[in-house]
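seq:
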Amino acid sequence: MNKVKQHFEEITDAWRLYRKYAGIRNREDDKWTAMLDEAAAIQERHGNSELIRRVVMMFMELLESEAKEMDNVQD
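struct:
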């Protein structure tokens, strides 16, 4: 597989993880656990490449930031 296609698949899988868990709230521990398990599986599926680790981490940080924002709006 060429590198461009490989990178596309890695980024797409990470984005799908983000899309699936977009809107997750901090108090939803079961969903965070499921998301972390899926993130690990995605990274493993792509050979724990540097790109997949970075992209998955970026989306996880985005989910965390958005969850904090939602909590602040509710207060």
